[in-house]
Write a structure and sequence with these properties.
5-stranded mixed β-sheet, single chain, Aspartate Aminotransferase, domain 1, 378 residues, alpha/beta
Length: 378
């Protein structure tokens, strides 16, 4: 027996896919991926909760920084060191707008309404931190804005909005992605700017700039944030232990007769290691109180070491087994980089160290073996 045909739930002669679309009212679904897509929109919703401000994703960290500059369109940007790629974006943007770079430590009087102070904290490649509240007060006293690149201090280590940031940027490629398998940029807007519709304007500009993140990366991002807190806390804890151990070999007097490194280790490392840099070693800032308030859950998973000879810095990465010689950071694997390969402005004896989730004792042994190999070849 032939089954009766089902009647259509929509009027005849109108295609089914058009019955829910009314072109003259705002849409409430996903129409075009350059605007919104299910995975990226879900990822942004999760990030908005984690970062405590409405969040947009971009194709990469640098595309997010470019979007920030386009949106705020400052006449001046006060900036210090940090990722050389951001300085490159400013140089390109400068050709179109004439934006002027001025020093981070410029007098407040040099700033005008609409200008930007941009701070990366902790800073690449050193892992040292900057007092955000101090610069927020400086910016806002002149009608300028504070933007913060918090890539090296991901949640739950710090919340720049708590200290006055207007926009927070992340290269989500790093710790938020956390697995070295995705490109992602992030901008989060301080809730104080809700009435000014900053988020909506950024979204409109992203639509025409076209610097959107792919759907696959959105899915990977959703996967990654599930373990974000566990990963970052583990990495920051391991860095704290490694930094204390290394620094105690260089400055044993700081540790009141109880250095982490043994006498034998200190004797070995004194032949190779000159200096260790990390926010946990900013003694005066810790005593002052602002650093512990700004970073209550750890001082960051990246630190740097300066060796006594350029050749040591060039060769150490190849002597290690658990640390991979690579220019990225933030993944579950530990990386080390002779930074001068990618950033010619840094000390040629400096190595940037990004710690993964391996056991810190294993990483310590790997570094020690690397130092032994350098001394044996000297």
């Amino acid at each position: 027996m032939e089954r009766p045909r089902r009647t259509l739930p929509h009027p005849p002669n109108i295609p089914r896919h058009l019955t829910s679309i009314q072109p003259n009212i705002p849409y409430d679904g996903h129409i075009y991926s350059r605007h919104t897509a299910p995975t990226t929109t879900r990822f942004e919703a999760i990030l908005s909760t984690i970062l405590k401000g409405q969040t947009l994703t971009y194709a990469s960290g640098l595309s997010a920084f470019h979007a920030l500059l386009v949106f705020l369109n400052p006449r001046q940007i006060s900036i210090g060191g940090g990722y050389h790629g951001c300085h490159g974006v400013i140089d390109v943007h400068q050709k179109l707008t004439g934006v002027k770079k001025i020093p981070l430590d410029c007098p407040a009087e040099d700033l005008n309404p609409g200008d930007v102070i941009h701070i990366e904290t902790p800073i690449n490649p050193y892992g040292t931190a900057t007092n955000l509240a101090k610069f927020a007060e400086k910016a806002h006293s002149r009608g300028a804005y504070l933007t913060v690149d918090a890539t090296f201090g991901p949640p739950p280590l710090q919340d720049p909005f708590e200290w006055g940031a207007d926009i927070v940027m992340h290269s989500g490629t790093k710790y938020i992605g956390g697995h070295s398998d995705m490109l992602c940029g992030i901008l989060a807007v301080n809730p104080v700017h809700v009435k000014e519709k900053w988020f909506e304007q950024l979204a409109k500009e992203r639509l025409v700039l076209g610097n959107v993140m792919g759907n696959m990366e959105g899915w990977l991002g959703i996967r990654s944030v599930r373990t974000l807190e566990v990963r970052v806390k583990k990495q920051a804890e391991s860095v704290g232990r490694l930094v204390r151990w290394l620094d105690s070999a260089v400055r044993p007097e700081r540790y009141e007769g109880k250095p982490e490194a043994t006498e034998e280790e200190r004797e070995l490392m004194s032949k190779v290691l000159l200096k260790v840099e990390h926010a946990s070693l900013q003694e005066e800032d810790i005593k002052d109180g602002w650093l512990l308030k700004q970073m209550p859950n750890g001082f960051g998973p990246v630190f740097s070491i300066v060796l006594k000879e350029v050749e040591f810095a060039k060769r150490l990465p190849s002597k290690l087994h658990l640390f991979h010689h690579a220019t990225s950071l933030g993944g579950v694997e530990s990386l080390i980089e002779w930074r001068a390969m990618t950033d010619p402005s840094v000390d040629t004896k400096l190595l940037r160290v990004s710690v993964g989730i391996e056991g810190w004792e294993d990483l310590k042994a790997d570094i020690l073996d690397g130092f032994k190999a350098l001394v044996a070849e000297a």
